[in-house]
C-alpha cells in the first residue's frame, strides 16, 4: 500500500510535496525533505530549520565525563514497561520505529514526579562499527544508539507534547558490537519485510522493552536537549546511560540492510554532536 510519509513521531510538518497534490505524491511517495546525505544531511538542516544553529539546547552532544556534575539529588529512575504481545515495526525512511501500544511509564530521576509515557523506540547506526551513535562519550562514538521515547502525560498526547520544553524524555543507550542481544532479535530477525522505506509489519512475537535497558540503570548522564531530527524541537530531557549494551555484528548488519528515503542503504543515520552552549550535564554517579 502506498501511503505518503508523515513523520508521525517527531513532527507534524508535512513534506512540502504533500501540499502539491496527489499526482506529485504518487511520483515521489518516499521523498523526504531531509536525510543524511551530503545534499540533505545535518549540515543542511539549518536552511529549513534555523533552530539547528540558533537553538540553545540542540542534541546530540559530546558528553565529557569529567565535566559532568554529580548531582546527589538525582533519584533512581522508575521505569515500568509492559511486554508487547506483538511487535509493530515501521521503516520510516530514516530509521526503524518500534511502536509501543502497552502503557509503559517513566518517572523519577531528573523528571521527578512528572509522568512520561512510553511511545516508541528506534535506533541510529553507522555504516560500520566505528561510528553510529548520536551522543559521544569523551569523544568516543559507538556502533549504534537506541532511543526509547516517552511523552509527558501532562500534555495528553505525543503530538501535543512533542514541541513543549518539557514534552519528551528519551533514554539513550549506547550499542557496542559484541554478543547477540536476545531481546533485540525479535526486531533484527524480522526486518525482511521492512527493507523499503514506508514498509510496516506486525510480528506476532512478544517483546519486552525492559530487556533493552542496560543492567545498570542507576548510572546515567542527563541534560536538556532537542529532538535530533528535523524539526529539531527543543523538547527533550535526555537520559544517557553510562553502561552500553551489546548487539552482534549480524544484528547491526540487519539494520544496515534497510533502504532509506533517498534510496540508499540506511547507514550513518545520526546527527553529529552539537555545541553545548553553556549547558551543564549532570551525572547520577561519581
Ligand atoms: Zn533518535
Provide a quick synopsis of the model.
It is built from 6 helices and 15 strands. With 286 residues, the protein is α+β, with helices and mostly antiparallel strands.
Protein model, in words:
The protein is about 10% helix and about 25% strand. The chain is of the alpha+beta class. It has a single domain (about 15-285), classed as Roll (Carbonic Anhydrase II). The strands form two sheets. Strands 2, 3, 4, 5, 6, 7, 9, 10, 11, 12, 13, 14 and 15 form a 13-stranded mixed β-sheet that branches. The longest helix is centred in the C-terminal third of the chain and has 8 residues, at about 250-255. Residues about 1-30 have low confidence and may be disordered. The chain binds zinc ion. Zinc ion (ZN) binds near residues 122, 124, 147 and 228.
Nearest-integer average pLDDT: 92
- The oligomeric state is single chain
Question: Major sheet, described briefly?
Answer: 13 strands, mixed
The distinct bound ligands, ions and cofactors come out as: zinc ion
Shape: globular
Helices and strands, with pairings:
Layout: H1 22-27, H2 45-48, H3 51-54, E1 62-63, E2 69-70, E3 77-80, E4 87-91, E5 96-99, E6 105-108, E7 116-125, E8 136-137, E9 144-152, H4 158-161, E10 168-178, H5 185-188, E11 200-203, E12 220-225, E13 236-241, E14 245-248, H6 249-256, E15 282-283
The protein binds zinc ion.
Features:
metal-binding, 13-stranded mixed sheet, Carbonic_anhydrase_a-class_CS, glycoprotein, two-stranded parallel ribbon, lyase, Carbonic_anhydrase_a-class, single chain, 286 residues, 15 strands, Carbonic Anhydrase II, alpha+beta, disordered N terminus, binds zinc ion
